[in-house]
């Protein structure tokens, strides 16, 4: 409504940029860097993901990672925080309104809790989220005399739309598409879901090879999170990108998950503080 009454190309452009940056902070940062440790990132990249991730109002990186790891460890069971077996609406959003044991004590994440930057973001998350998600957009838009638009559009609307896109990974990615790599799990591959979720739609692959920094493993797969990580590697801001062995990928695809694929894994040293 505000855009109809007070249209502003500057505000719309700022919302689009903020949506892109904060969305990638969740997929390339919260998800692939922190939750799965699929690569190593330099301190500036890590801080960017922590700050931009807070602006999404999706909890701290520690809590987000704890819930997500529980989802992978207990997929489609009662211990899965957002199991699709409880229905699409539950997996999409209503799971947030129930107590989650996985993130009740984040100190149990022994690889993430010792990292000072991650611990600080968790401690100051409410203040950081409000500041980066709402105050900064309003102040930024004040430059072109639209602080209310900055607050409502760049802040609230951008965060609300991004939340729905992220929730689609929990719901749509377990309903739409093909179970290419594991017929026994609900996770599915879907280009449509990938387009909505910054490349997270190749979910059957991701659940089979969660240590791989890629979700879209083929070169033609739409996966901007993968492209960002690779680009950062070329300027030496990320390193030690983990990949599943091509033979394991082909075997898993060929057998449709009926046989256990043998994956090549490399250990990533703990990130520095």
Keywords:
273 residues; mainly alpha; two-stranded antiparallel sheet; 12 helices; globular; disordered C terminus
Q: How many strands in all?
A: 2
Low-confidence region ranges = 259-273
| Terminal-residue CA separation | 44 Å
Q: Please state the average pLDDT score.
A: 90
The Cα radius of gyration reads 19 Å
Helix content: 40-55%
For the sheet with most strands, the description reads:
2 strands, antiparallel
Overall structural class, as computed from helix and strand content, comes to mainly alpha
Outline, from the CA principal axes? globular
Question: Biggest sheet: strands side by side, in what order?
Answer: 1-2
Our count of helices gives 12
Summarize the structure.
The chain is an all-alpha fold. Helices cover 53% and strands 1% of the residues.
Could you describe the 3D structure shown?
By secondary structure, this protein is mainly α. The protein has one domain (2-255). It is built from twelve helices and two strands, in the order ααβαααααααααβα. It has helices at residues 2-5, 9-35, 43-54, 61-73, 88-92, 116-123, 125-142, 147-170, 191-196, 203-208, 224-234, 246-255; strands spanning 40-41, 238-239. It is globular. The longest helix is centred in the first third of the chain and has 27 residues, at 9-35. Residues 259-273 have low confidence and may be disordered.
Secondary structure topology:
Elements lengths: L1 H4 L3 H27 L4 E2 L1 H12 L6 H13 L14 H5 L23 H8 L1 H18 L4 H24 L20 H6 L6 H6 L15 H11 L3 E2 L6 H10 L18
Antiparallel strand pairs: 1-2
Helix pairs in contact: 2-3, 2-4, 2-8, 3-7, 7-8
């Amino acid at each position: 409504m505000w855009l109809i009454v007070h249209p502003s190309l500057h505000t719309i452009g700022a919302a689009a940029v903020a949506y892109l940056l904060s969305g990638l902070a969740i997929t390339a940062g919260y998800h692939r860097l922190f939750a799965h440790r699929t690569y190593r990132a330099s301190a500036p990249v890590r801080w960017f993901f922590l700050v931009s991730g807070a602006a999404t109002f999706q909890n701290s990186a520690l809590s987000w990672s704890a819930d997500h790891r529980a989802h992978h460890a207990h997929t489609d069971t009662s211990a899965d925080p957002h199991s699709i077996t409880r229905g699409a609406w539950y997996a999409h959003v209503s799971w947030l309104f129930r107590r989650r044991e996985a993130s009740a004590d984040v100190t149990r994440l022994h690889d993430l809790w010792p990292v000072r930057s991650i611990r600080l973001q968790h401690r100051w998350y409410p203040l950081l989220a409000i500041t980066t998600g709402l105050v900064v957009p309003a102040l930024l838009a004040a430059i072109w005399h639209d602080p209310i638009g900055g607050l409502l559009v760049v802040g609230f609307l951008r965060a609300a739309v991004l939340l729905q896109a992220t929730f689609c990974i929990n719901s749509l990615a377990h309903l739409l598409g093909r179970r290419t790599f594991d017929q026994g799990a609900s996770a599915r591959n879907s280009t449509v879901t990938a387009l909505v979720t910054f490349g997270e739609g190749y979910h059957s692959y991701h659940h089979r090879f969660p240590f791989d920094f890629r979700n879209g493993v083929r070169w033609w797969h739409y996966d901007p999170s993968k492209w960002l990580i690779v680009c950062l590697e070329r300027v030496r801001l990320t390193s030690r990108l983990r990949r599943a062995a091509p033979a394991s990928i082909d075997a898993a695809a060929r057998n449709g998950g009926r046989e256990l694929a043998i994956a090549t894994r490399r250990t990533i040293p703990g990130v520095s503080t």
